[in-house]
Predict the 3D structure of the following.
Amino acid sequence: MYTDRFGTLVQKLRLLPSVGSKSAQRMALHLLMRQRTGALELAQALQEAIEHIHECSICHSLTEHEICDICQDTERDDGLLCVVESPADVFAIEQSGSFKGKYHVLHGHLSPLDGIGPEEVGIPYLVQRLSQGQIREVILATNATVEGQATAHYLVESCKHLPIKITRIAQGVPQGGELEYVDSHTLHQALTHRLPLNQSS
Amino acid sequence: MYTDRFGTLVQKLRLLPSVGSKSAQRMALHLLMRQRTGALELAQALQEAIEHIHECSICHSLTEHEICDICQDTERDDGLLCVVESPADVFAIEQSGSFKGKYHVLHGHLSPLDGIGPEEVGIPYLVQRLSQGQIREVILATNATVEGQATAHYLVESCKHLPIKITRIAQGVPQGGELEYVDSHTLHQALTHRLPLNQSS
Ligand SMILES: [Zn+2]
Ligand SMILES: [Zn+2]
């Protein structure tokens, strides 16, 4: 009943998160009936984004350059490193305006049952970065989920040998909540009232 | 904080129906982090769809050809015409499997306050199609909304001079409901129990 290309478009729109077949069909029709120019602009934007946006070679957030704007910013505190699970969390914390250090973006969180261990998450690279001596405090801002907590605990163990203060954002982040959906005020509270987790703090 | 191209992608994703800025950001990150190949396939599918899919020159539904498969289908009843507001409604009725006639797709419904009158909706072209004498019954399957009802009533008036039976899908379509979201069984009921609206019925 669909034309071939319509079916393909619906199928590809389903690659978007939380888009089922009804939504995808609705999106395809909307674009074809009312947003034909916009659809071409979206196609162009997708191609440009995939071609030019990649991971920052230092913090692993997303950038169009070799090194992202935040890593390059000499006015930010190089001694303070905020560890998050995803670039979305960097965006959320930046929007809260409560942090002026640098970031380190993990590839998600530990999930042993899915075969996602320290190597896949990028923990060895983070420990190596911390070993270089420039960083005096690490703020663990992984999600307040079971996996995010486990990842934070694992990081505390991995950094035991380093003379670095380790803190965990705490106050205000609701249990089970995912960082990118927390409002700016709550994030501000969480960063301001961060709690020490190890002894050199 | 966004890179330029990330911001552009988020903005273009917002052209999709029911996608706000948070959803668009989530979609952009999902594509960049986990669906880079899929994103390029989506871009390609969008371009191909816009290039090749257009209105059928007879029924105004969507097709990749000059005339759509349904209009070309000689096994369907040429004397029975189902009038709908959008190609999505054609899809919904086809999925219900309860109709073997032909279709006519209006450009939405009458909406005088938005400057959308009979000409914009394509009613003169429909009346012209009906005047050719091949059609013996018109099933008005515009939405069961206030605008869809008004459009159906306007069509009854516009066809008064023609020796054509006019019916309206009725039973089962919930008041205020939009046709493309109605389940197949309800659509089947609505088509089976259609009610005559004018005197030549
Ligand atoms: Zn960076
Ligand atoms: Zn057609």
Notes: The domain at 78-168 of chain B is CATH 3.40.1360.10 (Dna Topoisomerase Vi A Subunit; Chain: A, domain 2).
